[in-house]
Amino acid sequence: CTLELAPHICVVGSGPAGFYTAQHLLKHHPQAQVDIYEKQLVPFGLVRFGVAPDHPEVKNVINTFTQTAYSPRCAFRGNVTVGRDVSMSELQEAYHAVVLSYGAEDHRTLGIPGEELPGVISARDFVGWYNGLPENRKLAPNLNCDTALILGQGNVALDVARILLTPTELLEKTDITAEALNVLEQSQVQRVWIVGRRGPLQAAFTIKAPRPRKRLLELLVRTALKPPEAKGIDRRAETPRAWGLRFLRSPQKVLASPDGGRVAGIRLAVMKLEGSGENAQAVPTGAVEDVPCGLVLSSVGYKSRPIDPTVPFDPKLGIIPNSEGRVLGAPGLYCSGWVKRGPTGVIATTMNDSFLTGQALLQDLEEGVLPLGPKLGYAMIEPLLKNRGVQPVSFEDWEKLDEEEVAQGQVAGKPREKLVDPQQMLRIIRH
Ligand code: FAD
């Protein structure tokens, strides 16, 4: 029967992991039907909401994802939060297999006193804000201070530092949001410290890949080679901005302003290394150092959340326990991307691991591990969503938003002006 030939597969999350897994399945199984569920109104995950606006070339992968979405056997189901609008057991009933590719949406907390003070924000929220993530659009970071301090020395920390330091005339031609550009134009920040627990040899950005090196270099060049004639447009032109790396420092306490109303500095424990190379451990020397700063950005990592009580989750590693993408103890369930490996690795790493997950799934199909009785796929989920008042959006809907963003961007000389208000986005879609 044809149903047996057409496995219905559901992918949760439309970031690189979701799209690359879908691509592999569609390419290597001529009948597979793939539905990609996404909680946002728009596709592409961190390619849209993570990758820095001044790195447009990284976003070219969107063209490949768009080709995948155009397959007649692929459908994008945006505006559907799995675990809330539809349960995992419902998806498992409707589909032959479910691939979890929902990324790492949380951030690690610092776990130190004062962390809740105004002026302490997570790099994740800050990145979401300048990249137009709807939930962060009202972040309104206060850049009315001369020193910002970033805790963490990974790629995200470098992106954040670069955005704080880059002259706005270089950012205004990117897809950074109008709101972020406006706040950055008024920024008083002159100095950015990038603080790490360990030494230069262990800093996260010094590992293997050339990308972090390239980013560090970019940061250096951008801030060092500021064109002198740009003076006047931007107050930053008048006083050169500075940044620095501080190694072997671990945050102990955020210090409050005298009225207790906001951050005024941070107390850092001075560390020393025990052991050598990448495995060296930082241990406190007992000395502390207070650094005045008006803004603390914590960039100590992203973190996955459990999606549903029925899905195995390792809270310590922050991943779904799996073997080559097969979720342990849960036949028919797979995972790929950051929720499979943990929140590290570039898009190319995510691509490779997603292809491997796709391969494992197809192997299971072929070997009859997955029961191939008739399944209804989206035909079963659609009425459930309707009853719950959920209004899914399609890839064509995204293309309407895309068109609007590009048109608005054109006026401002940018590749696009991202829409950040879901209500407005829904109005454009329904128009
Ligand atoms: P994500 O891209 O996060 O995609 C997960 C998707 O799942 C999201 O769209 C999310 O909305 C959706 N989702 C979450 N929960 C649910 C749910 N319950 N229901 C439905 N959908 C859900 N890599 C590079 O190669 N170059 C770069 O320049 C680069 N810059 C980066 C900058 C930052 C700030 C960050 C954080 C990462 C960067 N990366 C970069 C890494 C790259 O973004 C990741 O490797 C990749 O995005 C991971 O893909 P993913 O699909 O696992 O996760």
Question: What report would you give on this structure?
Answer:
The chain has about 425 residues and is of the alpha/beta class. The protein folds into two domains: about 190 residues, NAD(P)-binding Rossmann-like Domain (Rossmann fold), CATH 3.40.50; about 200 residues, FAD/NAD(P)-binding domain (3-Layer(bba) Sandwich), CATH 3.50.50.60. About 35% of the residues lie in helices and about 20% in strands. The chain contains 16 helices and 17 strands. The chain has a five-stranded parallel beta sheet, sandwiched between helices. Strands 6-13-7-8-9 form a five-stranded parallel beta sheet. α6 packs across α7. The protein is globular, with a radius of gyration of 23 Å. The protein starts with a helix and ends with a helix. About 45% of the residues are buried. About 0% of the residues have low confidence. Bound molecules: flavin-adenine dinucleotide. The site of flavin-adenine dinucleotide has 35 residues, from α2, α7 and α13. It comes from Vombatus ursinus (Common wombat). Its EC number is 1.18.1.6. Belongs to the ferredoxin--NADP reductase type 1 family.
